[in-house]
Amino acid sequence: MEKRDFLKSNIQTPESRRAKLDQRVRRAFWLFSGIPLILALLILVALWLKSQPILLTHPITKLLFGSAWKPQRGEFGFLPFISGTIWVTLVALVIAVPICVLTAIYLSEYASGRLQRLVKPLLDLLAAIPSVVYGVWGVLAIVPWVQNSIAPLLSQWSYIFPILTKTNPTGYSVLAGGIVLAVMVAPFIVAIAYEVLQTVPFGLRQASLALGATRWQTVKYAVLPKAATGIFASIILGCSRALGETMAVLMVVGNVPQIPRSIFDAAYPLPALIANNYGEMMSIPLYDAALMSASLILLIMVLGLNIFSMLALRHVLRERV
Amino acid sequence: MKWKWQYLEEKFIQFLMLISFGLILASLLAILFTILSKGLPSLTWAMVSQTPKGGFYLGKEGGILNAIIGSLYLALGGTLIALLFAFPLALLLNVYLSKTVWADWVRFSLDILWGIPSIVYGAFGFTIMIFLGWRASLLGGILTLALLEFPIMTRAMDEVIRRVPPDLSRAAYALGSTDLETAFFVVTRQILPGVATAVLLAFGRGIGDAASVLFTAGYTDRIPDSLFSPAASLPLAVFFQLGTPFPEVQQRAYSAALILTVIVLGVSLLSRWLSHFLDRYSIQ
Amino acid sequence: MSEISPHIETQNLCAYYGSTQALEDVSIIIPRNQITMIIGPSGCGKTTLLKCLNRFIELEENARVEGKVLIDGENIYSPYVEVTEVRKKSGLLAQRPYPLPMSIFDNVAYGMRIHRLRPRHEIEQAVRHYLQVAGLWEEVKDRLHAPASQLSIGQQQRLCLARGLAVQPEIILGDEPTSALDPISARHIEKRLVELKERYTIVLVSHILRQARRLADYVIFMYMGKVIEAGIAQQVLSAPQHEKTQAYISGEF
Ligand SMILES: Nc1ncnc2c1ncn2[C@@H]1O[C@H](COP(=O)(O)OP(=O)(O)OP(=O)(O)O)[C@@H](O)[C@H]1O
Ligand SMILES: [Mg+2]
Hints:
The structure holds three protein chains of three kinds.
Chain A lengths: L1 H31 L2 H16 L1 H6 L2 H6 L3 E2 L4 E2 L2 H32 L2 H16 L2 H24 L19 H25 L3 H9 L4 H30 L2 H6 L17 H8 L9 H32 L3
Antiparallel strand pairs in A: 1-2
Chain B lengths: L4 H35 L5 H5 L15 H32 L4 H15 L2 H15 L5 H25 L3 H9 L4 H30 L4 H4 L17 H9 L4 H35 L3
Helix pairs in contact in B: 1-11, 3-6, 3-8, 3-10, 4-6, 5-6, 6-8, 7-8, 8-11, 10-11
Chain C lengths: L5 E12 L2 E7 L2 E3 L3 E5 L6 H8 L9 E9 L2 E2 L7 H6 L1 E4 L10 H11 L5 H14 L3 H4 L12 H13 L5 E5 L7 H14 L4 E5 L3 H7 L2 E6 L2 E7 H6 L4 H7 L4
Parallel strand pairs in C: 4-9, 4-10, 7-8, 8-9
Antiparallel strand pairs in C: 1-2, 1-3, 1-5, 5-6, 10-11
Helix pairs in contact in C: 3-4, 3-6, 4-6
The structure holds adenosine-5'-triphosphate and magnesium ion.
Magnesium ion binds next to α1 of chain C.
């Protein structure tokens, strides 16, 4: 009996100390692991509080749907900026989605394993390029291209599609912003869509191919229906990236506070509004509150899309992990 | 018989796919080509070794050393602080919470944070700084970048740690280690290359980000000498110089963009090389 | 032996995955309207051989095939042959059933639609016919438009059979088609296959010797990528000539 006690006390003391440390860290970690959630809420609350002055003095409908932007006179209508954001994002998606989905299908269903392994780092590279660099590229290559080639070409059709009317002598336009954004979100969409396609079981493709279906028929009828939710989510995720992108777009869209009517119009998206004006003009009353509520609007748009797509993707990609 | 409709469709769609794929590759090449061809001619030793002299923004003497150093300070500081939070969070998330509902929530909120645009981080950081009575400063920029990098780094590490074979930690448990010991002594060694990859990924994101440091770090021609002095950064150097009407200054914007691109791509390649090690040593 | 009429014939067939050779100089005959079973220990190349018969081997990243596979005397690896036509000639039963992501009805109609085998108004009739042949009709006739994934695994495998038959193949290939199924569903499939051999040439891979005894008319025994012995089932299974076959059949592997 004594001997056993002796052993126990000798061995268990350090052991229980270790176990206690483990317990203590475990308990502390519960708090620690709350940081991300708290941080997300904090950002939301901070922006909300800071935009209170303007939210309290201006009706929300007037802020969201008013098109007059005259800070000096206390008129803050965000519609030009919101519509600018939406225009640029939509143009980017119209360009990027078909290209990205086709590329993802190509990589997943047609390309050899070697090519797939080769392309992944290239996509990472494209995703790693900083947004100002995209902006420089946009200014140097895309804006002149839009001005000199695309606008003259497409504006011939403006009598059928008013959206193509050339209104702007420069290339700084919704279209230029859309093209630059399309290139920026492409690696995201391709990478996620590719991953989603890879979760479709190989046996399903075989089942279709065994019936003598061509590869494309197999993709169309067997693979895509399975992957549709995930691919859609990847597009939404790309869309939310596009919404929040600041510098590159700011550098090429022209920044004129107007509601664009044509893809060759200049636009002024929300992030550009914030970036261009924050820190200055603090003397104008309510201006900083207005910019904060612009951030809040942007954040809510992005969060909405993100939460939607993440919930969808979670479901799709879970089986893989 | 041979040329059925479906073969035609197949060929056509393959053609479209190749074009799409080609377009994506071509845009990558176009960007690199533009930045190289415009940036190289005006890239001089003075550019990277001097701070702006008088009349720099009119096209006179000087370089962007202030921005290079400022960016390195900002990104290094931000990465370091983010790492302090990201590493324990990612590690213990897997050790203590591995598959609980709360862990799902933590990951979910990290993903949410990842998706928040950097301009919003900038606005948020600036608000907090005003609240604390700070001016645009190196520290402000560092903290904002840390916020921006934290979710990226944590999620990237999390993905790596999740791939650690459970056998390994089980072996450690069998030897009587506690969860904490297993995490720090066994799992950590296994995932070191992966952690480095995640850190580099976040660093690359941080050094290239302009919108978040725009108001928080400010801009100055001097190399910052304290945490409370403003700091220049490469992305903003590009942005501001491009915005001037003088071609000489715009030229410098191009070469600043080139320098930034080289740094970021270098970091990206380095992390790729490291993740190569990860694949080699982890049991698939 | 002389009354055997060959439907499929392989000549000096070799298959490689990268640098490892999975099939070595396989020359066999598969008789028409009989059940041929490929048996042998794990990893001996049974699946590979089966995959060579409908050019599925080409789906493997690094696989390479040499030699000929003749179906009705025509080499399916000839450059003038369209791969979809080859695959249409044989229905495949995989180890695990994979219903396509569509309704039960559409699963069966799929092959007819992509090959435009029948005018639209006949499809309904045909779907019913093939579901009956596969022995599934009674169980699904009230929910033809439900997603196929709702069926049980055994039902799914019969659905796959119906789906394969609907493209009017001449051959049915099965790679251990019953191994994922419960015994009753397995018997169900076996029964169908026996009925079907009147009209189809059936090639099955099996692990189970008893199944081979029950079903096979003709047996091919493989070992390490080579065909060791092939012949009438009774002969091979009860009086094997080769010592490897004897060892396998007496359960030594
Ligand atoms: N995709 C592949 N890549 C490389 N080697 C392969 C591949 N598929 C099969 N092999 C190899 O080829 C050989 C034959 O494989 P196969 O699948 O044909 O065997 P099997 O007889 O069907 O085995 P089992 O009874 O276990 O299904 C094996 O040695 C296997 O390791
Ligand atoms: Mg097999």
